[in-house]
Specification:
By secondary structure, the protein is mainly beta. It contains eight helices and 52 strands. The strands form nine sheets. It has a 22-stranded antiparallel beta barrel. Strands 33-32-36-37-41-40 form a six-stranded mixed beta sheet. A five-stranded mixed beta sheet has the order 3-8-9-6-7.
Length: about 900
């Protein structure tokens, strides 16, 4: 089929005919390469050939690291939206141990580290809730309270490529506002030949003199049958990755005097098993069918033990003397310290994820192509959070000295020995249970998320004219997500009212060594064993806060789109791109219960809304001589609301302290975040596909933002008797707080990126190269509403990354460092709800060394050493921008991976 170049007049007509679509995104094709060549290269980049680590790109032989870099550059050139990409060095060998680590080094992207692992990807200054994740183009479910995907659920060994779309096109269904990450697996018929790869790695986490050991195992099999009409891929990945930490948290500061603190040590076992399978059938050039299956099971078991102590915010603690620096106590002596709590926690998470997709593509004739895709994705999380509290027998107080340590915590020198079980008893240390004598607490959480989708697409190609292709189609998605919480108080008596002390059973003592924050000994207990053996009395708990943790949200999303793809010339300048529009109709609802003072006000009820948004987009890419590309883009972008904010629950009460009626709840009627986005990008490619330089500017004008708003509310509307209302107050007017759609704001930034093999500057540097990027982002968005000063969650103003590598004659080395300035993040806090935490600036460095045997009996055997967090970068945050006012300090140590990869 012929594909003639389009005339300048036809291009002009195409743009003129679509003025309402004059918001677009830049396409990514090279001036000196045809669209078909670009597409072929992109497919090759996503599916490395059977010679694996050795690959021919434009007649230049490259291997592992360099192959991955050049394949990513090819993808960037070939895509029709502005993208960043990471590609596998070989079968089962993405550049890093986790997908999130690799994504965090891309321009404009970074990762939120928590628990020693990168958990969430932030794109262009936005939190993970503003982006979406796809697997082979299909939207995925999530395990958290919201929509953000935890990328460590997807083994990097099973992925061939990840493409992050920073801008959108009409055909991209399930797109995010900040970006869309599409994880891809290998297509066996595109791969071309049989291949088998086995990876074995030992895993060691080291924190000071403490060491924990684990392993990672994976195997991949690719083959073709029946004259290459059938193809199969099977991948297996196992991870047993231990972790540990030292943690310090302050209780805040009262006029510069430390309020109290928590000093902990923790250990965690991360075990994940993943399976990926693909069956591909292509009997002829007219029909192709592909079935994808992905399954992952991730189990985490962690224990945490340490001390909690109250000083300025304690119960009767007396400050005897103090030394100050910058208005803050850096050394202080206290007597009558209360409470002092020996804390032992146990956390367990069991995640199961399955994703299935079946795609069928048929060429009706030389011009028409039809595609049908059905998919199903399901996630289930069962989580246990267990706490136990012990203190000095007889509710005794203690005395001690607390000194600021410039490493980022306060050292505590207390008088009592908290590693001696005979000194301690279980009881409620400071009326933490209110009316109950709470000697511990137990929470069971369960999250379920299911998503099914059906998609139909039609495509009509043209042999000549300004329109190269017309695409249109529809996608129907049905999603249901729920969260349930069951909670108990751990008591020393059945009544759970009298604060009766209970001796520590010595058979549950696991150790006493602590050696952190000035504390040499703390009793470590098998608190799970105590729970299972019935040491505690369990008393169920039901209150408004727990009720708010139970919710279900259902969504039906119908998306229809149409897109014109353009291809032509303006004199010596090639012009490619597309114009299109999406119509997205959403029908959402949530079932919830309204309560007053913890008592349900009737049966559960269902609330919701429906809406339709139109999302126009246009992508134009101008290819100039010498492999230069200028891209202009604009689009309307959308991100649906957080699912926990859509919950239909409501809680009402009378606040005796404020002497007013109060209420709060979710909002099932929330509309999405909407933004008009504009992009300008210049890219210069050089030395074929080996290197490039890019400079990009982006601007997003958010038309709305979701934040909590408090309004007056007449409580007489509730099904509560007038007598009951009058018994609290003569007025029925109070305050009700819920998330609403409010005023938006603007965010803008620029990104610079460079990838250069150094041999183009000086031939003796063959094999050496540098990949670097830098971004600067400025936000005028007020996430808590107009007039507030809270920063945008996920936004680091400065983000940068640099990688230096060498690869030649089988030897390879790579050192990477990524930096982000301080930012506001979200983590799971007390009670299992999300809470915001200010993260300090951080620089994380990783090292990789390897050797691949080139010939002989060991040919294709690769040896690898990786060190993650080479410089043992901790997580730090402080109050009032003063180092002495420590807020949080978490240290996770280094992780070492040593292993081998063999392919045949």
């Amino acid at each position: 089929m012929l594909n003639h170049k389009r005339s300048a007049l036809s291009i002009a007509l195409a743009v003129a005919l679509t003025p309402t679509l004059a918001m677009a995104q830049s396409a990514t094709t090279s001036a000196d390469t045809t669209a078909s060549e670009q597409q072929a290269k992109a497919e090759e980049a996503a599916n490395p050939p059977a010679d694996g680590a050795i690959k021919q790109l434009d007649s230049v032989t490259v291997t592992g690291i360099r192959r991955a870099i050049e394949a990513s550059i090819i993808t960037k050139q070939a895509e029709n939206t502005i993208v960043e990409a990471i590609s596998a060095e070989d079968i089962g060998k993405l550049p890093d141990a986790s997908i999130a680590d690799s994504l965090a080094r891309l321009p404009g992207l970074t990762a939120q580290r928590y628990g020693g692992r990168p958990q969430e990807i932030n794109i262009r200054g936005f939190a993970g809730d503003f982006s979406t994740a796809l697997l082979n183009g299909r939207e995925q479910v999530s395990f958290g309270n919201n929509r953000g995907v935890e990328f460590d659920q997807y083994p990097s060994e099973l992925m061939s490529q990840v493409v992050v779309h920073k801008t959108t096109s009409a055909e991209l269904v399930g797109q995010g506002l900040s970006g869309t990450a599409n994880m891809k697996t290998v297509r066996p018929l595109d791969y071309g030949e049989r291949a088998v790869a086995i990876n074995v790695r030992g895993d060691m986490n080291r924190l000071g003199d403490l060491k924990d050991y684990g392993n990672r195992l994976s195997a991949s099999y690719i083959d073709q049958f029946a004259d290459d009409t059938w193809g199969v891929v099977l991948g297996l990945a196992h991870m047993d990755s231990p972790g540990q930490s030292k943690q310090y948290e302050s209780w805040g500061y009262s006029n510069g005097i430390i309020g109290g603190g928590n000093a902990y040590r923790s250990e965690i076992d991360n075990k994940r098993d993943g399976v990926m399978a693909t069956v591909q059938f292509k009997p002829n050039d007219r029909f192709e069918s592909t079935l994808d299956l992905f399954y992952s099971e991730f189990k985490r078991k962690g224990s945490k033990w340490g001390l909690q102590y109250g000083l300025a915010y304690g119960s009767g603690s007396t400050l005897e003397s103090a030394e100050y620096q910058n208005g803050t106590t850096v050394s202080s002596q206290w007597s009558n310290i209360s409470p002092v709590v020996v804390r032992n926690d146990y956390n367990e998470t069991d995640d199961k994820l399955i994703s299935v997709g079946w795609n069928n593509k048929v060429s009706i004739n030389d011009h028409w192509t039809a595609t049908a895709d059905v998919s199903y994705s399901r996630a289930k999380r069962d989580e246990t959070l267990l706490e136990s509290y012990a203190g000095l027998a007889g509710d005794a107080s203690d005395s001690g000295t607390f000194t600021y340590n410039s490493n980022g915590w306060y050292d505590s020198y207390l008088g009592a020995d908290y590693g001696d079980a005979s000194n301690l008893t279980f009881y409620d240390p400071d009326s933490w249970g209110g009316a109950r004598a709470q000697a511990g607490y137990l929470k069971y959480f369960q999250v379920k998320d299911t998503l099914s989708a059906v998609r139909l697409d039609l495509s009509r190609s043209f042999d000549s004219g300004f329109i190269s292709n017309l695409q249109f189609g529809a996608n129907l998605t049905d999603r249901s997500k729920s969260r349930a919480s069951t909670e108990y108080t751990l008591c020393t008596t059945a009544a759970c009212t009298n604060n009766v002390e209970m001796a520590v059973p010595t058979q549950y003592v696991k150790g006493t060594d602590f050696n952190f924050a000035g504390i040499s000994r703390v009793l470590r207990l098998d608190v799970l064993g105590m729970l299972n053996d019935g040491v505690y009395y369990l008393v169920g708990k039901d209150d408004p806060d727990i009720n708010n943790k139970n919710w279900q949200v259902d969504e039906q999303v119908a998306t229809a789109y149409a897109q014109l793809n353009l291809d032509g010339d303006l004199g010596p300048v090639s012009v490619k791109g597309n114009v299109g529009i999406q119509a997205v109709n959403v029908d959402q609802e949530s079932e919830g219960v309204a309560t007053f003072d913890g008592v349900a006000l009737g049966d559960s009820n269902t609330q919701g809304t429906s809406y339709t948004n139109y999302l126009p987009s246009m992508n134009l890419s101008f290819g100039f001589p010498h492999e230069q590309v200028l891209r202009l883009g604009a689009s309307r972008q959308m991100a649906r609301p957080r699912m926990d904010q859509m919950a239909g629950n409501a809680v009402f009460s009378y606040d005796q302290t404020k002497q007013k009626w109060t209420g709060s709840g979710g909002n099932p009627n929330l509309k999405p975040w909407l933004a008009d986005a504009y992009d300008l990008s210049y890219e210069k490619y050089f030395a074929g596909d080996k290197g490039y330089f890019s400079a990009a500017y982006f601007f997003k004008d958010l038309k709305t933002y979701i934040y909590s708003q408090t309004v007056q509310y007449d409580f007489s509307q509730l099904p509560i008797s007038a007598e009951t209302l009058a018994s609290y107050s003569s007025s029925t007017i109070g305050e009700y707080t819920q998330p609403v759609n409010g005023e938006g704001g603007k965010i803008r930034g620029y990104e610079l990126a460079l990838s250069v093999p150094l041999d183009i500057l000086w031939s003796p540097l063959e094999g050496f190269g540098i990949v670097a990027n830098y971004s600067d982002t400025t936000s005028e968005i007020h996430p808590d509403g107009p007039g507030t000063t809270q920063p945008l969650p996920g936004l680091s103003k400065y983000v940068s990354s640099i990688t230096a590598y060498y690869e030649r004659h089988g030897f390879s080395a790579r050192i990477s460092s990524r930096h982000r300035s301080q930012f506001l993040g979200e983590v799971q806090g007390y009670g299992g709800d999300r809470e915001r935490v200010m993260f300090g600036k951080e620089t994380v460095t990783d090292l990789q060394l390897g050797y691949t045997f080139q010939s002989g009996r060991l040919a294709n055997l690769s040896l690898l050493l990786q060190v993650n967090n080479l410089e043992n970068e901790p997580f730090r945050s402080n109050n009032d921008s003063l180092n002495e006012r420590v807020n949080k300090y978490y240290e996770y140590g280094r992780t070492y991976l040593l292993g081998a990869n063999y392919r045949f």
